[in-house]
């Protein structure tokens, strides 16, 4: 096994009683891969917001600081890796930023994956005051895993063509000094499909997402002054699934081993980790989708805002059947019976037209 037996992960993100989002989607996969995980819940909710109704509380900044202080006093803050996800407000996020900065100062080699969970499909679902805090946190990160919308929010660049994508990555790498950027999901629009090398481009741009990994050269792997870019496309499953980004980020962190050298000469440690995370996440989604197709008809009804509002349990039944099948797929998480990887492939001429 490639992990260190003593490695601990400090996971700071949301908690739900029912279902698999936030920490519920991230902690179990990390444990399956041999990591001890210390869990701090930024919210305690009954279920995720997609159900339309939920109960519970948000953890305040003071409560987070009390938890961090007690852990420090008891010498329990000993992570080798940090993972942060959904934190709904700026004050609570600032408390997390203070902790990460302190841990990075005490141990500069600590690995930090920052998932800037802010929104999707063009809208924020957190308080807007988190945005400047996230920007201030970016230089602390080893890896960040925004989706396309979160890239736009962080960089203030609308992703509309290859030039804008290049500019956004340049801002993240140069202005914010993030060495490793993985854009977990970008819709494969016509401009992006046509820009892709043939080795990455699917036959049809419809119903696909692209995962893109961009890493700066390291002293061990020198290159040019620009980043090395890898990408891979995956087909979309119909319907809405929650917790996919949380699962992907946890797997990416688990498989990221910067001291190891990939056998594939065109790969690097980031693309190798992304290949593992993408493969396993897609396989879990495949099981989840298959499971949803076997449900009774009243649990497979299509989305309809008007009907869902009139009958809230209509939405509940649909959401309930689409919770990630992590337990059924735990062998996948551990890497059992995975016959081939969805390998991230190098995009050699990504910067050529800059």
From TrEMBL:
EC number: 2.7.1.35
GO molecular function terms listed in the Swiss-Prot or TrEMBL record: ATP binding; pyridoxal kinase activity
Top-level taxonomic group: Eukaryota
A Pfam family of this chain: Phos_pyr_kin
Broad enzyme group: transferase
Residues in Pyridoxamine kinase/Phosphomethylpyrimidine kinase domain copies: 77-184
Keywords, in A-Z order: ATP-binding, Kinase, Nucleotide-binding, Transferase
GO annotation terms (biological process): pyridoxal 5'-phosphate salvage
Any one GO CC term of the record: cytosol
Family note: Belongs to the pyridoxine kinase family.
Protein name (Swiss-Prot/TrEMBL): pyridoxal kinase
Species this chain originates from: Crepidotus variabilis
Classification lineage: Eukaryota, Fungi, Dikarya, Basidiomycota, Agaricomycotina
């Amino acid at each position: 096994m490639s992990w260190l037996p003593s490695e601990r992960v400090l996971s700071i993100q949301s908690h739900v009683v029912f279902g698999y989002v936030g920490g519920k989607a991230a902690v179990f996969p990390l444990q399956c891969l041999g990591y001890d995980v210390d869990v701090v819940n930024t919210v305690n909710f009954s279920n995720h917001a997609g159900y339309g109704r939920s109960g519970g509380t948000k953890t305040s900044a003071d409560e987070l600081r009390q938890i961090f202080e007690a852990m420090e006093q008891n010498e329990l803050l000993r992570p080798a890796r940090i993972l942060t996800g959904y934190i709904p407000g700026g004050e609570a996020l600032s408390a997390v930023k203070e902790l990460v900065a302190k841990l990075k100062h005490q141990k500069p080699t600590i690995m930090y994956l920052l998932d800037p969970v802010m929104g999707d499909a063009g809208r924020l679902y957190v308080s807007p005051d988190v945005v400047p805090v996230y920007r201030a946190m970016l230089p602390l990160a080893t890896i960040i895993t925004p989706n396309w919308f979160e890239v736009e929010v962080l960089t203030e660049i609308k992703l509309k063509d290859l030039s804008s994508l290049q500019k956004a990555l340049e801002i993240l790498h140069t202005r914010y000094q993030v060495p490793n950027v993985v854009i977990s999901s970008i819709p494969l629009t016509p401009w992006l499909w046509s820009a892709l090398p043939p080795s990455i481009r699917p036959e049809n741009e419809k119903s696909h997402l692209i995962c893109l990994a961009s890493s700066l050269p390291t002293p061990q792997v020198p290159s040019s002054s620009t980043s090395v870019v890898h990408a891979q496309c995956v087909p979309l499953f119909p319907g809405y699934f929650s917790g996919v980004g949380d699962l992907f980020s946890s797997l990416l962190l688990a498989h990221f081993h910067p001291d190891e050298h990939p056998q594939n000469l065109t790969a690097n440690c980031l693309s190798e980790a992304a290949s593992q995370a993408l493969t396993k996440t897609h396989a879990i989604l495949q099981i989840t989708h298959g499971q949803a197709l076997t449900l009774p008809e009243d649990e497979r009804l299509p989305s309809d805002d008007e009907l869902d509002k009139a009958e809230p349990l209509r939405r509940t039944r649909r959401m309930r059947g689409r919770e990630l099948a992590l337990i059924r797929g735990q062998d996948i998480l551990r890497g059992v019976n995975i016959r081939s990887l969805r390998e991230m492939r190098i995009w050699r001429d990504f910067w050529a037209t800059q």
